[in-house]
Amino acid sequence: MPLQVQLPSTNGRASERLFVSYLAVIAMIVTAMIFHKVLDHAGFFSESFEKLSYPLELTLDLSLLGVICAAFPHILRELRRRTTSATEAHQARVHIELLFKMTDMLQSALGHADANSVLRSTATSLMPGFGGALYIFNNSGDRLELSTSWDWPERAMPRETISPQDCWAIKRGKPHLNLIEQNALCCDHQQSELVTMEIPMMARGEIYGLLLIQRDGGEAAAELQETAVLATALADAMSLSLSNLALRERLRTQALRDALTGLYNRRYMEDALERYSDQASRTRSPLSIVMIDLDHFKKLNDEHGHAMGDVILAEAATAILGTIRPCDIACRYGGEELVVLLPDCSLEEATAKAELLRNRIERLSDRHGIPVSASLGVSTISETSKAKDGMADADRALYRAKQEGRNRVVPAERSIREVASSKAA
Q1: pLDDT tens digits, residue range 93-125?
Q2: Which of the residue ranges 82-91, 315-324, 410-419 has the most confident prediction, judged by mean pLDDT?
Q3: Where do the H-state alpha helices sit in 130-203?
Q4: What span, in angstroms and rounded, lies between the C-alpha atoms of 152 and 173?
Q5: How far apart are CA 204 and CA 393, in angstroms?
Q6: Which sequence spans correspond to the domains of the chain?
Q7: Torsional class of 405: left (φ above 0), alpha (ψ -120 to 50), beta (otherwise)
Q8: 266-424 CATH fold
Q9: At what angle do helices 228-256 and 47-106 cross, to 10 degrees?
C-alpha cells in the first residue's frame, strides 16, 4: 500500500516564514531593551545622554508592544496550524498502525470468515459512523455475492448479489461515488437513498471483489470524499488477503481435483471410500460403486488426436456431474477410468443410475460425429464386505461388461447374490 505524504502548502510556508520573522523582530527588540537596561544600570549614560535614555526606553517598549500586537494574530494562526498538523500526524500514525495490524491479522486468516471479522473490526475503528459491505466474486465469476456488511440502516440493507455489468466501479476498475443528486451517474444496483463509495478490490492486476462504504446524512458526499484515501488503503489491504485466499483455494483444489475433468482425483476417492464405507457400516445403509471406462479410448486418440480425446473425457465428466446427487462423489481413477461413489444407494438403484450415465455418455456421439460409449461395472458394499472388496467387485463387473460387447452396465455377481440372500431372509 503506497504511503501518501502531504507536503506543506504555499500558504503554510508563507505563514511559517512570517511567524519566524515576527519572532526575530521581537527577539531583537527584547535584546535591545536588555542591553539598554544593563548600560543604564552600569552608569554608562552621561548626564548629557540621560535625557535620551527615557525616550529610548519608551520607544523600545512601544515598539515591542506594537510588534506583539501585530504579530499576535499571525502567531495564534500559526500555533493553530501547527496544532492541527500535529493532530493530523497523530491520527495518521494511528491509522497506519491499525492498517499494519490489519495486514498482520489477515495473514493468519484461514478463510473468508476470519478475513471478514478483521475487516469489520478495522473499518469500524478507522471510519466510525461509516457503514460498509464486502462483495466477492462467485466461483463462476458472473456475479458478486455479499460476504459481510456492517452498520447499515434497517431501511436500506445491502443487496445479496450484484451483477458486474451493473457496477461502474467494476467496469472501470476505479472507485466510483454514487450520489443521490438528480442526474448523478449511479450504478444500476444502487437502490437506496444512501450515498455510497464503491472501490474495486484489485490485486496483481485482477479484481477479486468490491468494497462499499456508505454514509447517511446531508454531508454524506463530502464526508465520503474526505475519507476516500483511508477507504482505498483499507481496500488495498483487504485485496491482498482476498488474493491470497483465492490462491490458497486454487492450490487446495489442485491437490484434490483432476485438472482436465474437474473430478476428484484418485487419492481423494480412496479417502472418501473409507469414510463412506465406515458410515455405511455404522448406519447399515448400502454404499454402491460405479466404475466407468470409455470404450476404445486409445483408438479414439489415435484416429482423432489427443485433443479430441481430452474433450470427450471432459464432456463425459460433465455428463456424470449433471446426473449424480450432491452427496455422490465422482472421481477420475486413472486414464479413461472414472469412479462414482453412491452412498445410501442400493444395487438396483445404482444399476439404474449407471444406465442413465451410459446413455448420457453415448449421446456425445451425436455431438461430435464419432462413436463414443462406455462400459460400467456396479457393486454394492454390504455390512460384511470391505471397501477394497467393493472396488474389486466393480472392477470385475466392468471387465465382464467389456467381454460381453462393451457399452453396457453389468452388476457385480457377489452383490447380486448378497441382495438375493437378504431378500430371501
Answers
A1: 877 888 888 888 888 888 888 888 988 888 888
A2: 315-324
A3: 168-172
A4: 25
A5: 50
A6: 10-106, 112-254, 266-424
A7: left
A8: Alpha-Beta Plaits (3.30.70)
A9: 20
